[in-house]
Amino acid sequence: MSGSSCARRGTGRPRTVASIRHLVPRLANENPPRGYRRIHDELVILGIPIAASTVWEILKTAGVDPAAHRVTVTWADFLRSQAEAILARDFVETVTLTGVRQYILVAIHHASRRVHVLGTTAHPTHAWVTQAVRNLLMDLHDAAHLARVRFLIRDRDAKYPSLISKTLSSAGITTVLTDVRTPRTNAITERWVKTLRAELLDRTLIWNETHLRHALHGYERHYNLHRTHRSLTTAAPLRALPPTLEPGQIERLTAHRHDCLGGILHEYQRAA
């Protein structure tokens, strides 16, 4: 039989289907610690018949580094992956009209963005700070939120007593200290401090500590129950978005304004 009468046959192994060639690099990028053998095992669980050597070849062709070079957990990775378990804490300073410097201690939960104003004082002694932290732990326990908190981020301010880390540790919380002069490592708290100044402290004449405490209480309520957050798809930390109105309801919509803190903040609600 002549060669011209025979159909030519290709040589070598058939090319892996496109869906698998796309899936293998995805598994590697989504699971940095996994080498090609672990990725092969995952494919087997999915019912995909493939050799481990083929997985290695796909990764090499796609330019995906071996697992040892892909396992680099950045600070941003840590914050993003552990947001539900992170509280961040910081002091905010302001001066009253009488010239007294006040220190406001705040904490914010990364995932929900809920803010806890722990107190304000002109004398942030170690005893005062320790009691404020204990009060926070009791509040978290009473709200059944303590169990989910595993890390507390703070700077190296000398106003924090060394015993605080032990108090937190006894509650199952690890203290994470930020580097000196690197505010970006506590970026969520830093942004909240800027918001507090822009929306309250820079727009209010604070007479004394009692007045400041009253203003902070009102702002904490507004922030947690009404202020929208893009990271929460415009919901508030303690308030979900309401159902979307139907076109007919929008045509008849009437909104009422509620003034907060002497009118420097406004909240709007639909009329019943």
From TrEMBL:
UniProt domain Integrase catalytic: residue ranges: 79-245
Top-level taxon in the UniProt lineage: Bacteria
GO molecular function, a single term: nucleic acid binding
PROSITE patterns in the record: INTEGRASE
InterPro entries: Integrase_cat-core, RNaseH-like_sf, RNaseH_sf
GO BP, sorted A to Z: DNA integration
Pfam families: rve_3
The protein's name in its UniProt record: Integrase
